[in-house]
Specification:
This protein is 46% helix and 14% strand. Helix 1 packs across helix 16. It is of the alpha/beta class. Among the domains are: 147 residues, Leucine Dehydrogenase, chain A, domain 1 (Rossmann fold, 3-Layer(aba) Sandwich); 163 residues, 3-Layer(aba) Sandwich (Rossmann fold), CATH 3.40.50.720. It contains 16 helices and 13 strands. The mean pLDDT is 97. The structure holds glutamic acid (GLU). Glutamic acid (GLU) binds next to helix 12.
Length: 473
């Protein structure tokens, strides 16, 4: 965990934010305790022989809730991972899934490791052994607990996990659904890699569709031309920044990374920078911007939109007062501490909170899981049928009007949706609907003054309903 002196831990910070929402809701104390508590927590320690020496690794998987199954959430590999962080992240998954109506419980896992210190084959051995522990102890299966990528893990690790499960449970016809975020040729789905970043883009687009909300952030107009500072160019940050700049005309004026920050008020070309980082392992010497060694200070740079897309606890009591962004969208989990959140709310900074903003990943994981348990690619049955109908429609229009439809128009009208189209459409709809529910909660209750509390109230209302309707067993 990233510890901040004189501030609550990450888990406490999440709980305090949830408490704020539960107080507004007047939620029954018993129900509140049932929702907040972490159902179960597994800690494993296992040995792996690395370069002739035995190393013992420590890992966790927390199941925060199982009112819906499977419980869902990523596995992170990080040298600072610990139980508190895993529990906080698992809780966030519970609220996140409810906000976007993904019918899963919340879970999260972590392995205490610096993946950069290990070779590919070593990581494979470690991952397979970790997966083995989780499977044997009932913390990983298609029907109960389904991991996904997170910080420090990706498609490769997910493929190893799926293969480990398959070997232990060859009779399970749904084995491939035991994990999401897999490579395409191993049961993955189109659009999963970009999903969290895409969700951030769709979330922002929806925010800007509501002029009254835009006004609360002291902004006006649409996304086009807005300035944006982004922290973290990992999978989430890269995709969010790329789509926002290339498709919505957002100007990325600064990118903050581990080795400093790059600044260019004219806008940084994200694809060029990403290629530079891949080639050189660092942002240093990137020709398209000026380097600022004190990266953290750039969080305070004036901009319209700030996107923390790295780790938790980045905006704290120390720097919150100096943050100048008008709107913050939390692409990372928990980037703002509880105390900082209070300061920013007082200052009038609008925050689109993590549990909504980064829910694109788990939303597309849900689509992948459905694809896996139904054993068919989305759109496989309908694509050609839709195309034929489109062709007929075009022919009908030509006959009725007596004029010819251009080839380009005919193609676009007659194009059947493929899997990526369907995934993006499903994600877009999910992000729009969820935001509309959140703003409805915000505008209909005088005691709610911020989007985070509104998100939690929206989410907890749904979860509480499932506890209260069914009762506790
Ligand atoms: N790790 C991602 C998150 O924090 C994705 C979780 C998932 O797809 O299950 O939301």
């Amino acid at each position: 965990m990233i510890t901040i002196a004189n501030e609550p831990s990450f888990r406490e910070s999440v709980d305090l934010m949830v408490d704020r929402a539960m107080t507004v809701m007047n939620l029954d104390g018993g129900a509140a305790a049932a929702i907040k508590s972490c159902d179960s927590l597994l800690q494993v320690q296992f040995p792996v022989k690395i370069r002739g020496k035995i190393e013992v690794f420590t890992g966790w998987r927390a199941t925060h809730s199982s009112h819906r199954l499977p419980s869902k959430g990523g596995i992170r590999y990080a040298p600072y991972a610990d139980q508190d962080e895993v529990e906080a992240l698992a809780a966030l998954m519970t609220y996140k899934c409810a906000i976007v109506d993904v019918p899963f419980g919340g879970s999260k896992g972590a392995l205490l490791i610096d993946p950069e210190q290990y070779e590919r084959d070593e990581l494979e051995m470690i991952t397979r052994r970790f997966a083995h522990e989780l499977i044997r102890k009932g913390f990983l299966s298609p029907s109960t607990n389904v991991p996904a990528p997170d910080v420090g893990t990706g498609q490769r690790e997910m493929a190893w996990i799926a293969d480990t499960y398959k070997h232990l449970h060859p009779e399970d016809i749904n084995y491939i659904a035991c994990v999401t975020g897999k490579p395409l040729h191993h049961g993955g789905i189109h659009g999963r890699v970009e999903a969290t970043g895409r969700g951030v883009q769709y979330g922002l687009r929806e925010f800007f569709r509501h002029p009254e909300d835009v006004k609360t952030a002291n902004l006006s107009g649409f996304l086009q031309g807005k300035t944006c500072v982004i922290q973290g160019l990992g999978n989430v940050g890269y995709h969010a920044a790329k789509f926002l700049s290339e498709e919505d005309g957002v100007i990325i004026t600064a990118v903050i990374e581990r080795d400093g920050a790059l600044i260019n008020d004219e806008g940084i070309n994200i694809e060029d920078l990403y290629q530079h980082i891949n080639a050189h392992g660092s942002i240093i010497n990137f020709p398209g911007a000026t380097l600022e060694e004190n990266g953290a200070a750039v969080l305070e740079k004036e901009c319209d939109i700030l996107i923390p897309a790295a780790l938790e606890s980045q905006i704290t009591l120390k720097n919150a007062e100096r943050i100048q962004a008008k709107l913050i969208i939390e692409a990372a989990n928990g980037p703002i501490t509880y105390g900082a959140d209070e300061i920013l709310n007082k200052k009038g900074t609008i925050i689109i909170p993590d549990a909504y903003a980064n829910a694109g990943g788990v939303t597309v994981s849900y689509f992948e899981w459905i694809r896996n348990i139904s054993h068919i690619r989305l759109g496989r049955m309908s694509k050609r049928h839709d195309e034929t109908q489109g062709m007929q429609m075009a022919a009908m229009l030509e006959e009725l009007t007596g004029s010819k439809i251009s080839e380009n128009l005919r193609k676009s009208v007659a194009r059947g949706a493929d899997e990526l189209d369907l995934v993006r459409s499903g994600l877009d709809d999910t992000m729009r609907t969820a935001y509309q529910q959140i703003r409805e909660t915000l505008t209909s209750n005088d005691n709610i003054n911020d989007l985070r509390t509104a998100s939690y109230v929206t989410s907890i209302t749904k979860i509480a309903r499932s506890y209260l309707d069914i009762g506790v067993y």
